[in-house]
Amino acid sequence: MSDANKVRNLVFARVGRLSLHRNWLVEPKASRNWDLQLSTYDEQQSDLDDGDFPLSVDTGTKWDSACRYLRANPDLLDRYDYIMFPDDDLLFEPNGLSNLFDLMTSNDLDIGQPSLLPSSHISYPVTAHCPGFTLRYSNYVEPMCPIIRTDYLRTLLPILARWPTGWGLDDIWTMMMAKPAYRAAFIDASPILHTRPLYTGAVYKTFERLGMNPEGDLREVRSTFRGVPQPKLIYGGITDGSRKVSHLAANIRNGLHLLRAASAMRKPREARRAGYGMLIRTVTQIGYRPVQLEKVVGASPAVTVLSTTTTTR
Asked: What pLDDT, in 10s, does the model give residues 161-185?
């Protein structure tokens, strides 16, 4: 086991046959500030042995498997400060994982994610890397590679268990804390490459096999909480010169960058639309700050972690 005084972060990675996690291990073990726990959804891959702990085999989804693992190993929430939940099709910069954890810590974030290089497969242009920033504060973090402070993760676990497809979680988890302003961000100082086309991962077959309804989860999440934001907004940032900038400056810089970079992205029309939207919001969203979401009276309660088998090998 790693030196607990040094390694204060955990990477919990769901991996399969085509996993890219071996590229992450180029970072020398001696210089890492993170441990790696591999969890496979593919029983044919039960011989994976390049994590720091015994392999977890769980044929569920990313989020219910994570909940089951943490329920079986509750000491991890005390041992580690942050846990990252990356998909297995991501490429990080050299030392990128350690840099991300350092930036989460030094900026006192509860939840965050690395921004995406422009050649990535990108769901929302707001997540694309924006040069000149260390980070941009946002009301949105996607489920692809969230990094979550463990004391905040404790409050999120019932929600992750309630909607194990993950659809809709990104709408709410940046705004569940009492004072969400400046607690969530896209980290531009250490961007990643998302290599797999959208909606093609093995998890979609898992949804079908387990009879899960991701669209239904999304609708239920949005109907359970009042004030769920629809636009994915930037409301400030920190430049690579360590200067904190306002909503106005962050949106102007981000919007202009998207307009310039659109032609290099896979969906240039969407990028340009997002860039213009940011410029418009310098006027329409003046003073915006995220506030804690309220639960709708009578909405479905969170439930305990789903029950299924998890093994380690």
From this structure: 999 899 999 999 999 999 999 999 9
Side-chain-facing half-sphere of 193: CA atoms under 13 Å = 10
Pairing assessment for the beta strands 133-138 and 184-194 based on DSSP bridges: antiparallel
Domain range for residue 125? 9-298
| Prediction pTM value | 0.92
For residue 221, give the 3-state DSSP assignment. helix
Q: Point out the residues of the chain with pLDDT beneath 50.
A: 1-4, 303-309
For Cα atoms 65, 100, 288, give the angle at the middle one, nearest 5 degrees: 90
- Helix (H/G/I), strand (E/B), else coil: 216: helix
pLDDT of residue 230: 82
* Long-range CB pairs of 283-286, under 8 A, 24+ apart, other chains included: 285/231, 285/233, 285/235, 285/247, 285/251, 286/247, 286/248
309 domain residue, yes or no = no
Cβ–Cβ < 8 Å for 13, 36: yes
pLDDT at 70: 97
Answer whether 10's CB lies under 8 Å from 77's CB: no
Domain of residue 246, CATH code: 3.90.550
DSSP result, 127-168? GB--TTEEEEEES---TTS-EEEHHHHHHHHHHHHHSTT-TT
